[in-house]
Design a protein that fits this description.
Number of helices: 11
Shape: globular
Bound molecules: adenosine-5'-triphosphate, magnesium ion
Radius of gyration: 20 Å
Distance between the termini: 32 Å
Number of domains: 3
Strand content: 15-25%
Order of helices and strands: HEHEEEHEHEHEHHEEEHHHH
Number of strands: 10
CATH architecture of the largest domain: 3-Layer(aba) Sandwich
Helix content: 25-40%
Strand order of the largest sheet: 5-6-7-8-9-10
CATH class of the largest domain: Alpha Beta
CATH topology of the largest domain: UDP-N-acetylmuramoyl-L-alanine:D-glutamate ligase
Structural class: alpha/beta
């Protein structure tokens, strides 16, 4: 929502312990989101068959149908009839100040979901553990280890809620660790690990640097820096990190090396930056290739071309 004015003009000094405010807003925009759904959506649109795992409320039917039409398998979703699907509500004023609330709702029950019956009989290449209730994140990481399925650690927004042992537990032995720069520093501080200790404990460490691109560090400490794909306009940054993750994993799964995968991921992230919301982006193969060539040179674009064409050849919307 948008409040045409300034929040700060409505707080009365000396009366803050009795705050009673209602802001008449001039805009309400309802968008699909959630880290797991965002990542799964982009994997689905890029031709993969992700299985979404998470807890939702009785109101999920429309969202389920949207995700399924975009290639997401929702059979790992737990529906809690007595709760609502998690929801983030945010009002921004004219100064870009924000007042927001996050209602976890059904998310409280996500630790009740067991991975074993979901992956049973399926060829699951990777479990990505994103931000959720800490108990669920820990349980699903432990289950992936026990099942012998490689896992990606992507704790993002939940890092402040995790203690040192929990942080170590979520990350140790991960095939991939995704963070942004700030989250990496927070993780290092919380775990007490030096950067080289962290490096040795994960397969690949991917740190996104916003407009600065991304940094990939392999297990031996070898660093690769990948520039971002410059956006034509920034409409809405929500979900860029999620899009990057999905693009990167599709790149690797298609046989690209980590540098080319990050270049492909940057193109997908920029498509999200140029659209409103996290699940409204579009990408056209020829235009995408031209932008890859501009950002990384023609040989790099040619390496990515078959992957890009194949990923986008899958029907984006299933009937
Ligand atoms: N201003 C920008 N210009 C170009 N690319 C960007 C920009 N911001 C983000 N990106 C792309 O998106 C990727 C992820 O961005 P960022 O590091 O901001 O993630 P994040 O902080 O996790 O974002 P969020 O959690 O809000 O989705 C970057 O590595 C880059 O490729
Ligand atoms: Mg993020």
């Amino acid at each position: 929502m948008h409040f045409p004015g300034r929040f700060s003009e409505n707080f009365v000094a000396g009366q803050l312990d009795r705050v009673s405010l209602s802001f008449l807003v001039d805009d309400l925009d309802v968008r699909r989101g959630g880290v797991a759904a965002n990542i799964a959506f982009t994997l689905g649109v890029l031709g993969r068959r992700p299985i979404l795992v998470g807890a939702v409320g009785a109101d999920f039917a429309d969202y389920r149908s949207w995700l399924e039409r975009h290639g997401v398998d929702c059979s790992g979703v737990l529906t809690v009839e007595t709760a609502h699907t998690p929801r983030f509500t945010c009002t921004t004023d004219d100064e870009q100040c924000q007042i927001a609330s996050f209602y976890p709702g059904a998310m409280d029950r996500s630790a009740d979901i067991a991975l074993q019956p979901i992956v049973h009989g399926r060829d699951v290449a990777l479990v990505l553990v994103g931000a959720s209730m800490p108990e669920a994140m820990l349980a699903h990481t432990a289950q992936a280890r026990a099942l012998g399925i490689p896992f990606a650690a992507d704790p993002s927004q939940q890092l402040p809620r995790l203690d040192a042992d929990q942080c170590r537990d979520l990350v140790d032995g991960a095939a991939y660790l995704f963070t942004n720069e700030y989250e990496l520093q927070l993780l290092l501080r919380k775990t007490g690990w030096a950067e080289r200790d962290l490096t040795a404990r994960v397969g690949l460490r991917i740190t996104t640097l916003g407009a600065g691109g991304s940094l990939i560090v392999d297990n031996a400490g070898h660093e690769t820096r990948v520039a971002a794909v410059p956006p034509k306009a920034i409409l809405d940054p929500t979900g860029v990190g999620d899009a990057f993750r999905a693009g990167f994993l599709v790149g690797l799964d298609s046989g690209l090396d980590s540098e080319a995968s990050a270049q492909f991921a940057s193109l997908v992230a920029t498509a999200v930056l140029e659209s409103t919301g996290a699940q409204e982006w579009t990408l056209e193969p020829d235009a995408g290739l031209a932008r890859l060539a501009d950002a990384y040179g023609r040989p790099a674009a040619e390496r990515i071309e078959p992957v890009l064409r194949e990923a986008l050849a899958a029907p984006a919307v299933l009937s």
